Amino acid sequence: MWLNQFTVTGNTFRLESFQFYMRTEFAFTNTVSLAVLDANGQTLVSGVLNLELAASGAWYTITLNNPLTFNDGQSFSIQTGASGIIGYPAGADANARVPNRSFFFDRSQNRYVSLGTIPGFGNGAFLIRAVGTLIPT
Known about the structure:
By secondary structure, the chain is mainly beta. It has no helices and eleven strands. The strands form three sheets. It has a six-stranded antiparallel sheet with strand order 4-3-6-1-8-9, with no helix packed on it. It starts with a strand and ends with a strand.
C-alpha cells in the first residue's frame, strides 16, 4: 500500500475524486484497495475495485459518490493498494514539487515509511492527486 498526505490551506476543499498512476506489470487482474483517511488515520471512505490492466502504467480516476469536505488546516490521506503479484505498481516522481508527503507500508516494520528513505527518492512523491473544488473561507 502507498499513500499521499494532503493539508488544506487557506480554503475549504471538497474532495470529489482522486487520481493515481500505477502499472499492473504482468498481472492478469487489477484489484485495488482504495481509501481516504483523516488526519488520525481513520477511514472516511474505502472500497475495492477491479480496474483495467495497464502493464506499462496508466492514470486511474476514482470518483467519490459522496464528496468529502475538509476545512482550512485539516489533513487527509489517499491510500491505494494493489495485488502483491505486482512488484512495483506505484507511479512516483523522483523530484516532486511537494516532497515528504508520500509513504509506503513496510511489512517488515509494520508501519508506513517515507518514500524519501529510498535512495533516489529523497524528494520523491507518489503520483496521487486529490481532485475537487476549493471553496473560499
